[in-house]
């Protein structure tokens, strides 16, 4: 499933973007993908393959769609789809599907919230949920949904502050200040969430304005057994049989929100070969990457990330063995880890294929020759070398972190940074401490979401052990942190004594300012204070490297524009894009894989696997099997260009009707991060018919089904 | 469970010893623990704790046992125990328990053979086995059991060949040649397996002669569900409830071997506080390690090994998900990986505890001061520095390997090396190609043990991927190996075409000599030829580093002798040792852990875990529960100093009766590799009463039970 990858990758690619206010994610970022050129997304080659592309809503490939598919995209159509699309800030996509605020997304996008709403007695993730009346709908503790309402180009404003002769650091600071001002002004003026997004490696800056929904309630979810049927083994595979959907509702002023733009839900879905379009928030791609950058990923970064993911996966497996309740508590994280591990394994396999690198090299050589031969572009000739140098510098700091994996540590670091940043003028602060992001930051910082002591302990202790491994037991910072104790004893002692699980205590500390923080005796605050200089140092180095890369990629992007002249799409930035392509099967191992599966096929699939492990359909399905139309299409594939973050994206037809919900890509699509191919790579969706059939005949949710599209 | 650790660690510590003839293990060695000072085992500090020590049978601590336990060890007693003890060359210990050749060991020591004897229809590992008559006993395909029959000191002969002024490389070569000659002469003279063992870091060389048994047949095994009750979660934990035993029989000339020395099996076992003694083959300890060497383990080697183990564990988990048969095929390897991962995790946790390193540092500083102050010892002052330098050189080659993880690749490399080595005079060959080891080598090289294509493919492909990761995709050797293909495509193509699964083809190639090998078109032979120079280079570097370390540790050992004067024990070398200590419970988390569990406790333990996952007792136990004496002691702990390789060791009382079978150490004992502590560390055994009770009342094996001890 893609979203988890999205949840990590998008948080990374947007590390510097201001919607990211959660220290917890910062930790994940710095551990997982700190070396990626954060925010420095740029232009890939002009599409080499027919259906390639994650297109900006204000620069759609209208001519191509007209010429190839005889489909005319009107501004009205595009605007309707844009306003019907929803972003889950926790890392996924969704759509409005009724006038009274129903939001349809993936079960695995909602999973984090399902877990947060569950406890030892009610496991909504596992057992599902259905609110028969609106008063039964349960409010998510800290979910924020965004609806994109406008896009405007602010490139001139941002780039205008960079004066000739400024070095990389000064240029970055100047741009950051300009962006902060634009965002702040927009927020004050419109009260809308306002984010400046860096596109085409800095060749374009767009201001995105979002309507925010923070009162989000759970309406319906199926059992995890059918949402994730086949489990880790079937993940990224096809054919599939997953009802990976769930439904929320947004509220305003304690009433269901009145939504003007929403998608009608098609009862028959799309036919074989029919064009479909996907509107969602792809998290991150790196198609602009130079060969040197790809080699860094291949030889250093991905092996490193995979070692980390496997370490955590084993840790959570062991944790889950201890009891059923621990299994429940660790499930969301374990699933995310397995998903990422499988995704990165597929990506690394692709990069280790010499022919893929050779192909990239050939294209790069062509471009560099063209740049060398063009008097206007000659000045860009050093860009590739600069990117190569950045990789070496990234390698030198690989594995260094200023954080530990603990929600309480993240809160502590957030409080420490907040106190220090608030003493600065708004535009000089780190992005997530700017006024424009204060509401999001506080929603996370003061979230009542449960923090499980046992999960905390196992992660915190392991991350201190990893910190000791990476720096060596004799390192000065390690000595300061351990203070003579073993990592596991230290973790237990700190978690025992810290008061940061208490929201009032967090609020008190947040109010107490720099003085209050420095006087605090809370051991987690003390630990965060020890780590703060290192956290800031690494952040600064990262920002510098990002800026160098941003400028170099921006030059390459400009060269590509000049040489190829084609209108094209920027790398993904966890912002709204449109992708497209026909519903279409493919060949694998000499076999024809059909575009659809059916609900009846799920029962056959269960039987083939002896109804064992993750191949056990839930009781509800077995009980209602006789009532079902077993020929109902269940999952289907299309060639649309998607990536992590697209999970939950509505798949629409020309008429703008929802025909499916993206939930995965097949294993062959995993190279999409750096290369699109429609030879075998496919996006996988839940078919709209299956959602309706299941709601009506399995979940007795006729009332809910009737609301869909109305 | 310790043996698996043993299986890997002992193969390493004995990498250069001639009993190790299996290319498969070489691979494991080089990956797992290549940086350990192979064979350079030496003297630790004199025992600081009462029951510390793995004592040589020709240098038992008779005075201590007399003074502390009022137990007089006679030569007759020691000789009887020695001759009743059995070594499993695959990596474990055992004992003779009847005059007609019955051998009692752990189920997990026999597991490799149980798997090799199983197929899709008969899973003896999982379902157990009982040969009601001798004709039903099944011959193991390639098991070799050794009975130690004599020990003699050959130190003078070995050291006599090292001339003053020889450099490390020349000295190592001279010693190797001398050892080869001693072994060869002994083999010719006695027809007994003859191995020279390096002790006390080279201060002593002992010639061990073994009677070999190569016709070994399976007699009885319980179900894995009770042998490994509680699975990976309970592994290394206590209290435990495991019937981790199985029984083989050795044959000579197709008749049950007549065995003069065997252990009587005690029906009541040992009482609380009673002295027990353990006779077995601890695989490897590193108690002589300097602080620099321990820090290398802490900061580099163990994190590296753990990354590898977790990688393989996930790989085999994924493999097992694919089908029940794959699960069966991968089970032995998966279990070994989990076991090692858990063991190394425990060891690393210990090393990351600053107080443990501080304690070691204090002792080392004391010794170094004493050395500096003693005119005779002053020349040893540089030994610690030399060892520190070796660690840096080990780090520089960490992760480099000349092998891939495939049985067929190992066979290919074995054939390539054999052809080249056979062209040299016997004493100049690598140890495992000397005449004295030819029989063992051929037993492995031409073993009919099944090679599963699917297991081969997944390991082989992964190890090529790892090879690319470690060296980088642009490395020249990587290019030569891949030849333009992706690692997984290469692996599939080579395995498809190689003929090395065919034993006759292996024999043909072995006979064809260097010319035949170099002309072979078998793709696996071609690959081995590409890798051969790198394999030899790494082997040579390893040998050199080992020799430098051997000499340095030998100096430290000598200094320790001089300063402390106490008679003591050498680090473990997978040769027969005696350990001892009382049966004794311990305190943990404020709780008193009793020394015993009972068979009835197993049923309670199942219930506590809702009879889920690995906590399901086999049907046979449930069916016979009513017949059992539920108070029968099941597992027990004692303070004896054991380590991996001791699995299956007989635990005897003063009368020389078998009262238990070692099968594990608790989690607190995992630091035993570098430090013994009896505060909480305990050796875990199956109680003799439980073996008899189970055979009689659960397995209807009265006939077999009657033979035990007779």
Short description:
2 copies of one chain form a homodimer. The first copy, chain A, is an alpha+beta fold.
Topology, element by element:
The structure is a homodimer of 710-residue chains.
Chain A: H1 2-13, H2 23-32, E1 55-56, H3 62-69, H4 75-84, E2 85-88, E3 92-96, E4 102-105, H5 107-117, H6 124-127, E5 129-130, E6 138-139, E7 145-153, H7 155-159, H8 168-190, E8 193-199, E9 204-213, E10 215-221, H9 224-227, H10 231-234, E11 246-252, E12 255-256, E13 275-280, H11 291-321, H12 324-351, H13 354-373, H14 383-397, H15 407-421, H16 438-445, H17 453-471, H18 476-482, H19 487-497, H20 503-519, H21 523-564, E14 577-582, E15 586-588, E16 591-593, E17 596-598, H22 599-608, H23 619-624, E18 633-638, E19 650-652, E20 658-665, E21 683-687, H24 688-697, H25 702-707
Antiparallel strand pairs in A: 1-14, 2-3, 2-7, 3-4, 4-11, 5-10, 6-10, 7-9, 8-9, 10-11, 11-12, 13-14, 13-19, 15-16, 17-18, 18-21, 19-20, 20-21
Helix pairs in contact in A: 1-2, 1-12, 2-15, 8-21, 11-12, 11-14, 11-17, 14-21, 15-20, 15-21, 17-19
């Amino acid at each position: 499933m893609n979203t988890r990858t999205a949840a990590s990758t998008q948080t990374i690619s947007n590390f510097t973007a201001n919607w990211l206010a959660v220290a917890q994610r910062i930790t994940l970022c710095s551990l997982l993908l700190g070396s990626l050129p954060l925010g420095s997304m740029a232009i890939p080659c002009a599409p080499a393959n027919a259906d390639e592309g994650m297109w900006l809503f204000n620069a759609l490939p209208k001519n191509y769609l007209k010429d190839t598919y005889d489909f005319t995209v009107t501004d009205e159509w595009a605007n309707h789809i844009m306003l019907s699309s929803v972003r889950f800030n926790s890392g996924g996509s969704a759509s409005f599907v009724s006038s009274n605020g129903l939001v349809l997304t993936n079960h695995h996008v909602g999973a984090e919230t399902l877990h947060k709403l569950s406890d030892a007695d009610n496991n909504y993730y596992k057992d599902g949920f259905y609110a028969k009346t609106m008063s039964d709908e349960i409010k998510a503790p800290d979910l924020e949904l965004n609806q994109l309402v406008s896009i405007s180009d602010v490139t001139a404003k941002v780039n205008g502050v960079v004066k000739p002769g400024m070095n990389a650091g000064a240029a970055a600071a100047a741009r950051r200040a300009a962006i902060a001002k634009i965002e702040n002004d927009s927020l004050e003026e419109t009260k809308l969430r306002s984010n400046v997004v860096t596109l085409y490696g800095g060749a374009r800056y767009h201001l995105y304005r979002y309507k925010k929904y923070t009162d989000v309630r759970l309406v319906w979810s199926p059992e995890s057994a059918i949402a994730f049927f086949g489990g880790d083994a079937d993940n990224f595979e096809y054919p599939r049989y997953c009802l990976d959907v769930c439904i929320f509702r947004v509220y305003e002023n304690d009433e269901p929100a009145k939504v003007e733009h929403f998608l009608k839900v098609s009862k028959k879905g799309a036919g074989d070969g029919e064009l479909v379009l996907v509107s969602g928030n792809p998290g991150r791609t790196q198609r602009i990457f130079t060969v040197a950058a790809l080699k860094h990923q291949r030889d250093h970064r991905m092996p490193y990330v995979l070692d980390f993911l496997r370490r955590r996966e084993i840790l959570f497996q062991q944790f889950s063995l201890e009891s059923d309740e621990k299994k429940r508590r660790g499930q969301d994280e374990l699933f995310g880890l397995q998903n990422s591990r499988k995704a990165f394994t597929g990506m690394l396999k692709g990069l280790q294929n010499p022919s893929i690198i050779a192909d990239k090299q050939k294209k790069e050589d062509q471009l560099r020759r063209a740049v060398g031969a063009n008097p206007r572009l000659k000045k860009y000739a050093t860009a590739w070398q600069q990117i190569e140098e950045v990789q070496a510098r990234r390698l030198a700091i690989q594995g260094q972190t200023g954080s530990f994996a603990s929600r309480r540590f993240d809160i502590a670091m957030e409080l420490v940074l907040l106190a220090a940043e608030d003493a600065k003028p708004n535009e000089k602060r780190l992005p997530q401490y700017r006024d424009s992001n204060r509401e999001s930051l506080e929603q996370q910082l003061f979230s009542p979401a449960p923090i499980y002591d046992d999960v905390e302990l196992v992660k915190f202790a392991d991350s201190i052990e990893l910190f000791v491994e990476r720096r060596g037991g004799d390192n000065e910072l390690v000595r300061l942190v351990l203070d003579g104790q073993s990592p596991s004893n230290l973790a237990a002692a700190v978690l025992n004594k810290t008061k940061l699980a208490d929201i009032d205590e967090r609020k008190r500390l947040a109010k107490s300012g720099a003085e209050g923080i420095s006087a605090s005796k809370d051991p987690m605050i003390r630990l965060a204070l020890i780590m703060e200089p290192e956290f800031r140092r690494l952040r600064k180095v990262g920002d510098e490297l990002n800026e160098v890369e941003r400028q170099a990629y921006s030059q390459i992007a400009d060269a590509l524009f000049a040489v190829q002249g084609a209108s094209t799409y920027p790398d993904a930035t966890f912002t709204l894009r449109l992708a497209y392509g026909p519903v279409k099967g493919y060949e694998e191992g000499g076999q024809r894989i059909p575009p659809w599966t059916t609900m009846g096929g799920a029962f056959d699939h269960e039987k083939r696997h002896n109804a064992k492990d993750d191949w056990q359909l839930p009781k509800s399905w077995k009980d209602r099997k006789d009532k079902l139309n077993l020929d109902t299409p269940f999952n289907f594939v299309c060639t649309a260009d998607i990536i992590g973050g697209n999970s939950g994206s509505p798949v629409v037809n020309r008429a703008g009707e929802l025909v499916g919900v993206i939930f995965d890509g097949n294993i062959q699509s995993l190279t999409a991060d750096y290369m699109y191919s429609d030879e075998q790579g496919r996006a996988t969706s839940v078919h709209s018919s299956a959602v309706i059939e299941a709601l009506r005949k399995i979940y007795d949710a006729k009332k809910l089904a009737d609301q869909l599209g109305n």
